[in-house]
């Protein structure tokens, strides 16, 4: 076997170094790709986790808002209004004209007081009289208690007040149905109309 051709040794060494560098670069790139893949997977998992957490927070907030809204309505829903037309007058020929005024009983069935209680008839008429009430809502004018001022400042738990409208003709009476207004113990103003619809009352001056 002859002597190695030393003129080719540097070439081989250079080639070996290049191959080693290429292998190292490949391993480095492979490692970096693996790390990038792991980072992307981690980021995706974190994003999914954060998304689930955000959804859970939104659901909890929605439930809390719903619970708070339900509590806000709890007392107002326990205030009742009972109304009926009553009385009778005669016209110029002596014929009886029935149902000439409204009799409205407001009953606070909640456990805490309501405030500034009043009844409006139609868009502008206020009650002509209001009394403490101790009987059933469908009873006649007795047994009523003392006369109260309007609006009724406080109507305690389990208490009732009876409001009487002015005396009108049947047509005017029909066109001026009663609406009960009151403020709950948290300071929210409510309105309960003739048809039993309960709403938060608009602020004074609101359209």
What order do the helices and strands come in, and which of them pair?
Blueprint: H1 9-74, E1 79-90, E2 96-108, E3 114-121, E4 125-126, E5 129-133, E6 144-147, E7 152-155, E8 160-164, H2 170-174, E9 178-183, E10 189-193, E11 198-200
Antiparallel strand pairs: 1-2, 2-8, 3-4, 3-7, 3-9, 5-6, 5-8, 9-10, 10-11
Textual characterization of the structure:
The structure is a single chain. This protein has 207 residues and is α+β, with helices and mostly antiparallel strands. The chain folds into two domains: 7-74; 80-200, Immunoglobulin-like. 34% of the residues lie in helices and 32% in strands. The protein has two helices and eleven strands; from the N terminus they run αββββββββαβββ. The longest helix is centred in the N-terminal third of the chain and has 66 residues, at 9-74. The termini are far apart. The mean pLDDT is 82.
Describe the structure concisely for a colleague:
With 207 residues, the protein is an alpha+beta fold. The chain is built from 2 helices and 11 strands.
Which structural traits does this protein have?
Immunoglobulin-like, alpha+beta, 11 strands, single chain, six-stranded antiparallel sheet, 207 residues, five-stranded antiparallel sheet, rod-shaped
CATH topology of the largest domain: Immunoglobulin-like
- Sum up the overall morphology in one term: rod-shaped
What is the rounded Rg?
Answer: 41 Å
Outline the low-pLDDT stretches: none
Q: State the separation between the terminal residues, measured CA to CA.
A: 112 Å
Output the helix-strand order. HEEEEEEEEHEEE
CATH architecture of the largest domain: Sandwich
> What is the β-strand count?
11
CATH first level of the largest domain? Mainly Beta
Instruction: Tell me the structural class.
Output: alpha+beta
Number of domains: 2
Chain-averaged pLDDT: 82
How would you classify the quaternary structure?
A: single chain
Helix content class: 25-40%
Strand content: 25-35%
């Amino acid at each position: 076997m002859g002597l190695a051709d030393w003129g080719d040794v540097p070439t081989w060494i250079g080639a070996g170094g290049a191959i080693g560098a290429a292998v190292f670069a490949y391993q480095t790139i492979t490692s970096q790709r693996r790390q990038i893949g792991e980072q992307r997977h981690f980021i995706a998992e974190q994003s999914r986790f954060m998304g689930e957490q955000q959804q859970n927070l939104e659901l909890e907030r929605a439930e809390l808002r719903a619970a708070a809204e339900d509590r806000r309505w709890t007392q107002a829903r326990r205030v009742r209004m009972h109304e009926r037309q009553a009385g009778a007058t005669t016209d110029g020929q002596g014929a009886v004209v029935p149902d000439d005024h409204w009799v409205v009983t407001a009953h606070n069935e909640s456990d805490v007081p309501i405030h500034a209680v009043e009844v409006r008839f139609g868009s502008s008429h206020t009650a002509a009289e209001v009394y403490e009430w101790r009987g059933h809502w469908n009873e006649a004018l007795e047994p009523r208690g003392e006369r109260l001022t309007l609006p009724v400042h406080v109507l305690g738990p389990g208490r009732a007040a009876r409001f009487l409208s002015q005396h009108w003709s049947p047509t005017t009476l029909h066109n001026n149905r009663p609406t009960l207004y009151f403020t709950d113990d948290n300071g929210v103003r409510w309105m309960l109309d003739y048809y039993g619809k309960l709403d938060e009352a608009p602020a004074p001056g609101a359209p």
